[in-house]
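Dear colleagues,

As part of the handover before I leave the project, I'm documenting each prediction I ran so the next person doesn't have to rerun anything. This entry is a single chain, and its sequence is reproduced below.
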Amino acid sequence: MFIAIGVTFWYGASNYQMGTAARMGPGWFPSVLGAIMTFLGVLIAGIGLKNQAAWARTEGIGWTWRPVVILTIAVVLFGAVLQPLGMVFAIILLTFISGIAAHDKDYKQLAIITVTMCLLCAGVFVWGLKLQMKLFPWS
């Protein structure tokens, strides 16, 4: 995701005048931001793949696409159901679908994470930042 957003910013900034570091043009900041995000995306992906491969070798399990696909589906589904179902049900759906991707499923821990995420997100986004976001479908 970082890579996609970074490349998009980088490409979008190519339509604007770059300028110099001392006298920045309108394309300088989005271009630098895009480059930094792309670099961070590549770095995070590389570290994640390296750690996943090391874990798979120690556990005797080969690297699989299953967790990547499940987590991608969970995030896309979260975005799709946020408006109609509200934030609480979308977070519940996100955490439980993401929990399917885990190799060691602990449903008690998953329930604690779900309740914590619901409370934190409601506190920060709805009550703290006053975003116009439904908590429940009926609200």
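Helices lie at 2-13, 28-59, 66-85, 87-100, 107-128. The chain has a mean pLDDT of 86.

All the best with the project,
I.
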